[in-house]
Structure formats: C-alpha cells, structure tokens
Amino acid sequence: IANIGELLAIPRDELSQRYGRDFDRVIKRIEQRGERLLTPNIRESRVSWSFDLDQPVEDFEQLIFILNHGLERLFARVANYGKSSDHIDISLRLENGKWHRYEIKASFPTLERRFWLKLIDLRVSIEPPEAAIASVEVVTHFTRPRSDQRGLYAVSRPEPESLLLTAGKLKKLVGTHDVGVPVLLNQRLALPFRLDADALPVGKEKRERHSPRPVIAFHYFRPARRAEVELRDRKIVHVRTREFSGPVIEHGGVWRAASKWWEADGWRTQEWDVEVENAGVYRLSLVNGEWFVVGEYD
Q1: How far apart are CA 171 and CA 169, in angstroms?
Q2: pLDDT digits (tens, 9 = 90+) for 71-130
Q3: How is residue 144 annotated by DSSP?
Q4: d(Cα 65, Cα 9) in Å, to the nearest integer?
Q5: From its phi and psi, is residue 260 left (phi > 0), alpha (psi between -120 and 50) or beta?
Q6: Contact present, 46 and 88 (Cβ < 8 Å)
C-alpha cells in the first residue's frame, strides 16, 4: 500500500479482520466522516474574482447575472477548501476612473448565493455609485463553516439570513441612521446610546437560569407625544393626549437633569412618572414650558 487511495480500495471487512474494528475510526477520519474532521492545510485566506465589462452600465442590477456567475465560481473554490465565508468585499471601477468599494459582512458563515446576492444588491442600492460601472471585483474571505445541529424535537426558528435581509430592506427604506445595533455611550446625554448600522448582533443562548430579578422595560416614543397636564397644588392630577386621557392615580418625581449647558446642543429637562387610570404608566417631561410623554413602562 503506497497511498491512501490504495488503502481505501481494500474491502472494509478485510481491513477489520487484519487490523481490528478500531481501524474503522481511521477509515472514517480519512473520509472525513469521523468525530473529528481533517483540517485542510490552507495558506490562502481569501479568493477573488473580477470581470471587465464591454461597455459601462449605469444600473447595478444589470450586473446581477454576471455577479451570480462570479459568486458561483468563488463559492465552489471556497467549498473545495472546506471553508465558508461571512465577509465579502465588492469593488466597482467606475467610468471616471474612481473606485467604489463595499465591505459586506454577515453574522454567520454561509455559501448561499441567493442570500449574498440580495445582501449585496441592498447594500449597493443604499449607496449607489456616482458614475457608470466599468468593472467589478469580488473578494471572498475564508472562515469556518457554520455548525447548525438541532435536536429531533427542537422548535423551528427563523433562519438568520431572513433577519439580515430584513435589516437591509429597513436601511434602504428609512436610512442607515435609524437601523442598527444599540451601543451605549459613556456620556451624560438624554438618550445615552446610538445605533451602529455596521455592527452585527451577536447572540448566545444561555441555558443556566439565575435567580429571578424583576426587570422593568421602558419604551421610548419617537417622537415624544405632546400632552396637556393639569396641576393641582403643584401635583399632576390629569393627563390628556391624542391617544389617551385620564386622571393620575400615582406619580413620582420630579427628577431634574441637565448637561452640556455651555454648548449649543445642551439640554435640560424635568421628568415625572405617572400612572394614568385605565391607560398605563408613563414618563412625562417638561421642556421649555411644554409637556411631553416621552415613553411608557411595559
């Protein structure tokens, strides 16, 4: 026996009789069917593909068919290495000689072409190139394949591809500034967070359960709703808005906050928590003499 091919050509029964049943593990590992797969010795970390157009095109959607062919060739090479990808770079050379580049990342590795085509199309439609496209270059970065093993009776759940495509459509509809992953800011602001449109959500299931602690959720209204507030003996007794109206059962406050008073974007507010009969628990804010309902406790 000079090589692995000659070894695999021998009937399994003969190998088992000669080397024992434990030799089956060796055969399965060679065929990558064992408990541990062989890791390919790959020096490359990415593969690329490019295409020069005969004539420049104005609309990127005209390149979808060509791009689909390019992804098919790229993903075949990636799969041949036993890898997957969660990161693709798109470079468009424009007719005016400039380059327009896009970095597209997913929160999971996949070689599903339809998913990547939709994600690329949405990304380019949000920031279209300024001139006609003369050539396209695609770079696919390697990563480990996704392991997705579920139990026989596991509850079915939406695929992660659907979430990213939905987020991409929302960015195209309302803009990138209003869709993203919340990031806390180490600053004293009225709303101390921002939305990172480029960040990807990272979720991990935790099976251990800690001692239950009550958590109060708060829903901000965007924009804050104007309100008419009735005071009696410096206490809030009635709240009226377009959505609800009623007497105040309980209230807490006042809480005063301010920051950046020395700058043009400085802010100052006074807030109360009120429970409105047959409506809910809300937060009121008094800004420059006007009342607003800024949110509701769930």
Answers
A1: 5
A2: 999 998 888 888 888 899 999 999 888 999 999 888 788 888 888 888 888 888 888 888
A3: P
A4: 43
A5: left
A6: no
pLDDT single digits (tens) 185-239: 776 666 677 788 777 666 555 556 666 677 778 888 888 899 999 988 888 999 9
DSSP string, 151-195: -TTPPP---HHHHHHHHHHHHHHH-GGGSSEEEE-SS--SS-EEE
Measured CA to CA, the distance from residue 288 to residue 127 in angstroms comes to: 39
- Give the residue from 142, 68, 134 showing the smallest Cα distance to 97: 134
198 is written with which tokens? 């480029």
Write down the residue that tokens 């060509």 correspond to: 66
Domains annotated on the chain, with CATH: 1-38 (no CATH), 46-143 (3.30.1490.100), 218-297 (no CATH)
- pTM passes above 0.90: no
State the Cα angle at 85 between 80 and 90, rounded to 5°: 110
